[in-house]
Design goal:
The structure is a homodimer of 341-residue chains. With 341 residues, chain A is of the alpha/beta class. Chain A has 14 helices and 10 strands. An 8-stranded parallel beta sheet of chain A has the order 1-2-3-4-5-6-7-8. The radius of gyration of chain A is 19 Å and the shape is globular. In chain A, 54% of the residues are buried.
Chain lengths: 341, 341
């Protein structure tokens, strides 16, 4: 079985965005009543249609089996509105993912968006995480390390500010993918700057304050987009940790931190495989995502990451199995339990 | 000749920092008169001592000839105080670099710090750049894309806000290394987060707004630390540019943008060489810099980047010459003129 651990519902029927647009418009318009959750009217057929020619078609074409699927990351927009805004929006997005996973239980397994808001304790995300895991069978969450959308005004991920959500993650035995949302800072292009910076930033935070994994030994994070800049600068991170008197990175955090394979060219994938242990790499493509085109040099989609992995003949078969499937059972224990059923 | 294009005076005599500490203290203390430039009392012998057992020793040990040398990047601290604060501090730092280059004209060539201040037009940096280039013989400058120190409150580098300094750079025929300073945002570790993010961010800004290099066809930027995350995600950047309707990256910006080799392990250096044309790579180590230790896996300093390059036997001799020496003449024309003398 080939599991893609990183997919977002980027092709959701337009009614979802319409609801969001109205919600945001109401925030700006003092004449309108405060936002209420309301309903998003999307039929099962609309959901099927949105997936058949996109994620499902791509799964078939590329030969992947299951996608761990969450709401559109750039759409989370935690900086907009207030706690209630984020709660209503997250609930709708997660309910839609649940419908996708119910319609296509062989193809999609859910991961939830959290109703984060800048400056507000992530304790307010606990109920939604619990609902998604216990009621919907979701296997993880996306945690935004910068709900401000590019101004980084909340504390680092190692701060006790974040502990309420970690306590619930540990209790439910679900990991978080550390994933920022859209950037509203004109300095940061969302998918070309902010996403990659978010990954790099989070990893360095985890080196800087290793107490986190002493407090939560079973807490697990997936750092997407191949770990941002981290594998390319693995020597820098090893050296910085060493200068800080930390144990080797393997002992410091590789029991808790994992990288996906969303790196859109073969030399990058090769580097990732050379420097990061296979036990810490999870196959992913983020299709349909940030990069939609075909690489003229190869004639294939940039984000067809399976093809890069398939072409590398020096990956040990046991390692290949871990990357495509085995590590998911370790990082997402609820995925494994679900698969057994 | 082997030229290291990226070195900072991290070992400056402590009198420099004492002056800075007093300057900062005066900012906070309403009883003190406003900061005046004053003097930094450092003898030539102190300068010699600060270098002999550090940068000069390392040059000899590693077999490099010249370092393009600038004030300590983390020390620039553009977010502190106001325009006058930055002007006095930059002048002192640059004057000290000039003294280093005068004492050791064979070993060091100067690059200046600019007196940037958040929210203030870089037009205020023109005089100091001109002084350093015309009076001191400096060959370039360090340009901080985020003078706020981790809050990214100024416009992107492609904004007309920055044009006054670009106009002077083009007139003087000097490049800028895009280099952030210390982070005062607790989310960003200075050398492990903010530095790398600054590089990645700047590159993506240049893809997003290609008008800059139409307005300044001869403007040149060096992106340090191996280009941040860029070479590792070269497929992503190629794909994003393509999705935006831009020409291939080579045509879009590789006439203006160059990467150094401050990548502290061999697999990273190999990736850089595989994906970035040799014409766009400049040898650098940033010694004595962010990572000071010895890699237990190799027994050598992490930042001994020459060793990684020397060990790679598939670099064409002509490319090796470009990386170690030839490209500097192209990117820093004043270095070449100086060498001829």
């Amino acid at each position: 079985m080939i599991i893609d651990c990183h997919g977002h519902y980027t092709t959701a029927p337009k009614e979802l965005q319409k609801w969001r647009d109205a919600q945001i418009a109401a925030l700006k318009d003092a004449k309108h009543p405060p936002s209420s959750k309301g309903t998003v009217a999307i039929s099962d057929d609309q959901i099927r249609e949105s997936l058949e020619n996109a994620q499902l078609k791509i799964q078939r074409e590329r030969g992947t089996d299951v996608t761990i699927f969450s709401p559109r990351a750039a759409g989370m927009g935690h900086h907009l509105g207030n706690e209630t805004t984020s709660r209503h929006w997250s609930e709708h997005c997660n309910e839609l993912i649940h419908r996708v996973c119910t319609l296509y239980p062989q193809n999609f397994v859910g991961v939830c968006q959290l109703p984060q808001t800048p400056g507000v304790s992530p304790a307010n995300c606990v109920a939604e995480l619990e609902r998604c895991v216990r009621d919907f069978g979701f296997v993880g969450c996306n945690l935004n390390p910068d709900p401000s959308g590019g101004y980084w005004t909340d504390p680092p991920l190692t701060d006790k500010f974040w502990y309420p959500i970690y306590e619930k993650m540990v209790e439910l035995d679900v990991p978080a993918m550390i994933h920022v949302s859209t950037s509203c800072n004109p300095n940061f292009h969302t998918t070309g700057g902010h996403y990659i910076n978010g990954d790099t930033t989070a990893f360095m935070q985890l080196i800087s304050e290793p107490k986190l994994f002493k407090d939560f030994p079973t807490l697990k994070f997936v750092i997407p987009h191949g770990g941002g800049a981290v594998p390319y600068h693995w020597g820098r991170y090893r050296g910085l940790a060493q200068d800080m008197g930390r144990p080797p990175l393997k002992d410091l955090l590789l029991g808790n931190v994992f990288f996906d394979t969303c790196v859109y060219h073969r030399p990058g994938i090769e580097l990732l495989l050379k420097v990061i242990p296979a036990d810490n790499i999870l196959f992913a493509s983020e299709m349909v995502g940030a990069v939609k085109g075909i690489d003229p040099d190869t004639g294939h989609y940039y984000d067809d990451t399976k093809r890069y992995l398939d072409a590398i003949d020096w990956i040990e078969p046991a390692d290949r199995e871990k990357i495509f499937q085995g590590n998911v059972s370790k990082v997402y224990p609820r995925f494994a339990k679900r698969a057994k059923k």
